[in-house]
């Protein structure tokens, strides 16, 4: 079976490999294209959109900074030697109330006094660790500083403070005006980021310079104090915190067998890092589903094709085998097939010690039938004799067309006497048959006779020897007037 259909198995393997390879190649090309699109287009656009939203947070702090910068009250008062405290107290009260802040203050660089709208609250001391923020602020290169303060429980920024340097006409630092605890409205930003997160299936984080999460829409176990504690993304947390680029930068990592794309961006105005964590598998699911469907359809089609090919080829091979062993006119075994059967029958007869006989049948004057009636009538006679022989012989008997108008019959478990009797009955049946009844080729009665020679197989006798003796008996029947049965001793 393997030798016979081995090439079909190879064809099946080639088709499976080819179709699977094509499907996988298409999948990986699509995956690469999708990844590149996310890295080069989708995530940078999303990053820019969120960055633009965060700039709205800066509108009010920038406005307040501009408001302080446009006022000369603090500068003039400091330059005048900090006289008339009521003047600066009123200024700080107005500044606090106008911006709905918790506290407003002015620190003189000359005297280090901190005024809070009531009077001198304290004097800044470089030796006091609590006052370090002021001395660090003095060294700040920027004209102002904006700080966002987070809720200790939710880590969400809830308020901000503004510290603005006051300089004289020569640009020398003479003091700092500050507002603390100005309420921050995050509702619009939260709603926008939630929408982005749902639409893009991403987790979005805002980190401070230390990597602490100051604002995030991530849910569940992804919420930690520091990005280094977030499962998966912690593998690249050092790269994220170290990023100083103000444009979108792409990173990748794998966690629990799931690929992630990460887009990061530094927001210098806020001192934050924007992080967008994209689960790539969410985007790949449709591609994986298409791949599985393609493989399933391809597998079914390939299997169906192989089944159809198998049965078609099997049918064709059976037809070829039948045509190689069967006479196409009479549907009897041909001589080639009979030789193999006869050899097996000889061996079986020797093992079982049962007699076996061969009968050689020849149609009398068959050439005259072809010459006078035509070859179609001759073919009809051959087919009819084959049909009569099949009906007359036992099921175990074998008959073949030996060649031309000759037939050879093998009678198993049959003595010479019984074989001769069977042959005689067959001869009589043929002689009494009107061959014109089963054809329209002739209108007159058509009678046919046959001559037959019978030989019993002897122990260790060859096939040629048996057929030679049967042929001799047939020749004797022809010499003695035909339409008879003779046997060989």
Automatic annotation (TrEMBL):
Residues 354-489 form the GGDEF domain. Its main location: membrane. The chain crosses the membrane at residues 291-313. Its EC number is 2.7.7.65. Keywords: Cell membrane, Membrane, Transmembrane, Transmembrane helix. It is a multi-pass membrane protein. It comes from Undibacterium jejuense. GO terms for cellular component: plasma membrane. One of its GO terms (molecular function) is diguanylate cyclase activity. PROSITE patterns: GGDEF (PS50887). Pfam families: dCache_1 (PF02743), GGDEF (PF00990). Gene3D superfamilies: 3.30.70.270, PAS domain. It is found in: Cell membrane. SMART domains: GGDEF. It catalyses: 2 GTP = 3',3'-c-di-GMP + 2 diphosphate. InterPro entries: dCache_1, Diguanylate_Cyclase, GGDEF_dom, Nucleotide_cyclase, Rev_trsase/Diguanyl_cyclase. It is an enzyme of class 2 (transferase). This is diguanylate cyclase. PANTHER family: DIGUANYLATE CYCLASE DGCM-RELATED, REGULATORY COMPONENTS OF SENSORY TRANSDUCTION SYSTEM.
């Amino acid at each position: 079976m393997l030798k016979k259909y081995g090439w079909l198995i190879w064809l099946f393997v080639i088709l499976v490999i080819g179709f699977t390879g094509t499907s996988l190649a298409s999948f990986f090309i699509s995956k690469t294209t999708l990844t590149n699109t996310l890295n080069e287009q989708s995530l940078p656009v999303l990053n820019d959109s969120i960055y633009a939203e965060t700039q709205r947070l800066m509108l009010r702090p920038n406005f307040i900074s501009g408001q302080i910068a446009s006022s000369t009250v603090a500068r003039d008062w400091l330059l005048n030697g900090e006289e008339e405290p009521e003047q600066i107290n009123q200024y700080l009260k107005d500044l606090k109330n106008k911006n709905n802040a918790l506290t407003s203050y002015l620190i003189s660089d000359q005297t280090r006094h901190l005024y809070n709208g009531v009077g001198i609250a304290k004097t800044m001391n470089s030796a006091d660790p609590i006052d370090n923020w002021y001395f660090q602020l003095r060294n700040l290169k920027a004209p102002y500083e904006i700080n966002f303060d987070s809720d200790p429980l939710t880590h969400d920024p809830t308020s901000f403070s503004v510290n603005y340097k006051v300089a004289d006409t020569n640009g020398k630092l003479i003091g700092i005006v500050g507002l603390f605890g100005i309420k921050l409205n995050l509702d619009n930003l939260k709603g926008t980021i939630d929408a982005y997160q749902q639409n893009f299936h991403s987790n979005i984080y805002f980190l401070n310079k230390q990597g602490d999460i100051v604002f995030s829409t991530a849910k569940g176990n992804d919420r930690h104090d520091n990005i280094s504690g977030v499962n998966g993304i912690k593998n690249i947390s050092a790269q994220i915190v170290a990023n100083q680029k103000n444009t979108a930068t792409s990173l990748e990592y794998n966690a629990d067998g799931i690929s992630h794309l990460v887009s990061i961006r530094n927001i210098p105005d806020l001192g934050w890092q924007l992080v967008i964590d994209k689960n790539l598998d969410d985007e790949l699911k449709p591609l994986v589903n298409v791949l599985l469907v393609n493989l399933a359809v391809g597998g079914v089609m390939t299997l169906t094709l192989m089944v159809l090919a198998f049965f078609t080829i099997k049918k064709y091979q059976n037809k070829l085998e039948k045509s190689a062993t069967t006479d196409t006119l009479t549907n009897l075994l041909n001589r080639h097939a009979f030789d193999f059967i006869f050899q097996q029958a000889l061996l079986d007869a020797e093992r079982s010690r049962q007699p076996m006989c061969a009968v050689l049948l020849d149609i009398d004057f068959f050439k005259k039938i072809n010459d006078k009636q035509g070859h179609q009538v001759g073919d009809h006679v051959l087919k009819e004799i084959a049909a009569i022989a099949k009906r007359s012989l036992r099921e175990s008997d074998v008959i073949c067309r030996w060649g031309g108008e000759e037939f050879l019959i093998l009678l198993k478990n049959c003595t010479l006497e019984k074989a001769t009797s069977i042959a005689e009955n067959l001869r009589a049946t043929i002689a009494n048959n009107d061959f014109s009844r089963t054809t329209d080729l002739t209108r007159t009665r058509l009678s046919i006779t046959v001559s037959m020679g019978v030989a019993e197989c002897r122990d260790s006798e060859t096939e040629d020897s048996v057929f030679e003796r049967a042929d001799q008996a047939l020749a004797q029947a022809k010499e003695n007037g035909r339409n008879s049965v003779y046997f060989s001793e």
